[in-house]
Amino acid sequence: MQQLIFGVLTLASFGFFAFNLRHITQNIHLGLPTNRSDRKAERWRTMLLVALGQKKMFNRPIPALLHLALYISFVITQIELIEILIDGISGSHRFFQESLGGFYTFVISFIEILSVLAFVATIFFLARRNMLKLPRLNMRELAGWPTQDANLILVFELILISFIFTMNGADEVLQSYAGHSNGFAISSWLGPILFGGKGTHTLEILEQIGWWGHIIMVYTFMNYLPYSKHLHIFMAFPNTYFSKLDPKGQFTNMQSVTNEVKLMLDPNADPYAAAPTDAVPTRFGAKDVTDLTWKNLMDAYSCTECGRCTSVCPANTTGKLLSPRKIMMDTRDRMVELGNYKRKNGTAAEDAKSLLGSYITEEELWACTSCNACVQECPVNIDPLSIIMDLRRFLVMEESKVPTELTGMLTNIENNGAPWQFAQTERLNWAKED
Amino acid sequence: MSIQVRTMADMMASGESPDILFWVGCAGSFDDRAKKITKALVKILNHCKVNFAVLGTEESCTGDPAKRAGNEFTFQMQALMNIELLNGYEVKKIVTACPHCFNTLKNEYPGLGGTYEVIHHTQLIQDLINTGKLTLADNGTFKGKKITFHDPCYLGRANDVYEAPRELIEKLDAALVEMKRCKTNGLCCGAGGAQMFKEAEKGNKEINIERTEDAIETSASIIATGCPFCNTMMTDGIKHYEKEEDVKVLDIAELIANAADL
Predict the structure, then answer these.
(1) B144 to chain A nearest CA, in Å?
(2) Which of A250, A317, A410 sits opposite B74 (nearest CB)?
(3) In Å, how far is B170's CA from the nearest CA of chain A?
(4) Chain A partners within 8 Å of B194 (Cβ)
(5) Which CATH architecture has domain A2-241?
(6) Residue A274 has pLDDT above 70, yes or no
(7) Looking at the domain that runs over B136-259, which CATH code has it been given?
(8) A255 close to B (CB below 8 A)
(9) Are A408 and B197 in contact (CB < 8 Å)?
(10) Over the stretch B128-182, which tens digit does the pLDDT of each residue have?
(11) Residue A278's pLDDT is what?
């Protein structure tokens, strides 16, 4: 009976997770194509260093170490999950214990120690958010759900770890009644402290609660991820693999513009020539998530809202409205909204909203100095600047919404080849002056 | 010493070709403060007998501020015209004292048909010193002075050039002191992304004031830069704190020209 329940629960969990993963993939594919299949060796290296090695996290050592404890313990604990799956399906008890012997004790002890570290880190993270009120974790874009989401994830982790120790602790006391010990690093002393002297029946129930609680929390966690910022634990890997590898200062040259400009500059071009009939009219710049590239959208799913980008943004730190983190959160929220809308009403359906306007304002976009601090800082190589630039392009080229002073600058460049009103014929005057 | 500058057109007419093109840029051509940087660099080039030329009245904006302002049309108009000119003169190597021109010429022109070896003037000066073509006089101009370097975003983060300007400062017999935010963590001066040409959005502080505070904190008497726009922003910041007497904002080219007694 228990095995049946376990089987159904497992299938349902993985099924629902796959269902959500499909939505995530569909949503990312709302974006335009961009080629990130070149320079494979460099891509693997970037992924190994930045995602697996967490290189950029270590710019801030203390949170990096705490994060590392959580990360390693998360990864290593998955080994135990294999056993839990086997035990759950076959009804065995600690399937690997007998065959692996001392190595088993070592692995579980290692997991226990990491779990304690993770527990401490989680408490610290909760305190940092809710008691120390770290500025970047308490900004206006985090009000409401994002803050709850962050706390919920941390509480999930605490509950999960508590179940592990309930299970191992109760098992340890049971073993001791039979004159044995599992010999695990933490539960061999923590078990007797927590549950020493309890009756066999109670202990068996406690162990069951620990075991079931653990697996239920794992499944809950897994299926919560697609609805949470916490998805970065998976997305960090593809996202760093597909990183922008060109110099940070290199912005894309828009091919659609090149075609038009070449036509304008070419005296032999026939301005009345019919456009190729298969040409899809493209928008200049981005108004909505469908005008961004799939990589921009993958970036949005990879963001865990840590706010390092915003904390180094010169505009944000001097009180301007712009927050690179908000740009990423807005992009994700809009993408999910539009994805759901299209799944309900057909892929060609358009709602009345857009990323620019409904989520991001002009004031935010015009505060950016394009300094690349946000791009440099992101621990998973997200590029908020590329979204900001594409939205600006739409404002300027499609809507002609340009701050007045910039209109003057642009006119000057067009008329006299300099952002100021100086004649091109005076360009060399400096050489004749003292 | 008067400076010697020849134009590409002039050289072509006499059947010569320069080893390197000096891309002066709009600020370097028209801004009174930046023109001094231009001349300091020319003095160095003249002194080292570098065979260079400028485009003179044929030069035009690279299009960088238009591109960062979102006007890709204006950018590409400028870029394609400049590329036609540069390719016509068969230019192979370009030096510029403006990181914005540097970034655009180096990274964004190749995709439009203009591929050149582009270097920042600090890299050229470093090379001139390393190859022995330029020696700094032991005149003690900077002896014991504290100099801090403000990383231009389009030189540093955008193109990973952090060491060339620092090595030059270290050659000055001065003490290089770093601001708390430097190199990859350097704070923008506030001028990039076409902000130079507009008022800042509503906030509680100007970015250049914030950055100037970083510089003043180091108690350096010279803020060195490698960008005409950073230079303007930092100079304004120093004026805001009325520290013009104690803190000078100078380009690396000016420091080197000074130390070489040019």
Answers:
(1) 31
(2) A410
(3) 26
(4) 406, 409
(5) Up-down Bundle (1.20)
(6) no
(7) 3.40.50
(8) no
(9) yes
(10) 999 999 998 877 888 889 999 999 999 999 999 999 999 999 999 899 999 999 9
(11) 55
Class of domain B8-127 (CATH, top level): alpha beta
Measured in whole angstroms, how far is the alpha carbon of residue B62 from the centre of its chain? 14
Which of B30, B39, B72 would you mutate first to test chain A, the one with the most A CBs within 10 A?
Answer: B72
- Inspect the interface and report whether the beta carbons of A261 and B24 lie closer than 8 Å: no
The token pair that represents A268 in the structure block:
């032999």
ipTM: 0.95
Domain residue spans in chain A?
2-241, 282-402
Using only C-alpha atoms, what is the Rg of chain A? 28
CATH class of A282-402: mainly alpha
Contact B199 A405 (CB under 8 A): yes
Judge if pTM exceeds 0.90: yes
Report yes or no: A417 at the B interface, CB cutoff 8 Å.
Answer: yes
pLDDT for B2: 84
Ordered by start, the domain boundaries in chain B are 8-127, 136-259
Rounded to an integer, what distance in angstroms lies between the CA atom of residue B168 and that of residue B173? Answer: 10
Three-class SS string for chain A? CHHHHHHHHHHHHHHHHHHHHHHHHHHHCCCECCCCCCCHHHHHHHHHHHHHCCHHHHHCHHHHHHHHHHHHHHHHHHHHHHHHHHHHHHCCCCCCHHHHCHHHHHHHHHHHHHHHHHHHHHHHHHHHHHCCCCHHHCCHHHCCHHHHHHHHHHHHHHHHHHHHHHHHHHHHHHHHHCCCCCCCCCHHHHHHHHHCCCCHHHHHHHHHHHHHHHHHHHHHHHHHHHHCHHHHHHHHHHHHHCCCCCCCCCCCCCHHHHHHHHHHHCCCCCCCCCCCCCCCCCCCCCCCHHHCEHHHHHHHHHCCCCCHHHHHCHHHHCCCCCCHHHHHHHHHHHHHHHHHHHHHHCCCCCCCCCHHHHHECHHHHHCCCCCCHHHHHCCCCCCHHHHHHHHHHHHHHHCCCCCHHHHHHHHHHHHHCCCCCCCHHHCCHHHCCC
**What's the pLDDT at A230?**
94
Query: Which among A159, A76, A87 has a CA at the least distance from the CA of A111?
Result: A76
pLDDT at A226 (0 to 100) = 94
User: Dihedral angle at the C-alpha atoms of A266, A268, A269, A271, nearest 10 degrees?
Assistant: 110
Q: Which of A394, A387, A393 is nearest to A292 (CA)?
A: A387
Same fold: B8-127 with B136-259: yes
Per-residue pLDDT, averaged over A407-419, amounts to 97
Which chain A residue's Cα is nearest to B202? A320
Q: A257 CA to chain B: closest CA distance, Å?
A: 6
Residue of A nearest to B187 (CA): A314
Average per-residue pLDDT in chain A?
A: 93
pLDDT over 70 (residue A280): no
